[in-house]
Amino acid sequence: CGYSGDACDAGCPNDCSxxxxxxxxxQCSCSATRAGVDCGxxxxxxxxxxxxxxxxxLCKEDATCECEDNFMGYDCADTKVLPQxxxxxxxxxxxxxxxxxPPSS
Length: 105
Known about the structure:
1 helix, two-stranded antiparallel sheet, 19% strand, mainly beta
């Protein structure tokens, strides 16, 4: 049942999964890298939509996010800009040539 005592109602849920301290009030005080009622989750950053790693990455044991390919940032909330998506601005010479010799209509 995850608790102790005759009625299985004493202690903390799942004995804090071995990753926290069971307080007198029956709640777990989790270590820094753990979270959840029973300290059974890794404590990765909560980002978009209130999800760990913004729901766009893997929450690792050291409480850091490993983002999916198209995402980046500590909480995987940022979209990567791929090289083919970067617009190359026209050079100043092209701009100056257009201003000096505007296209005829």
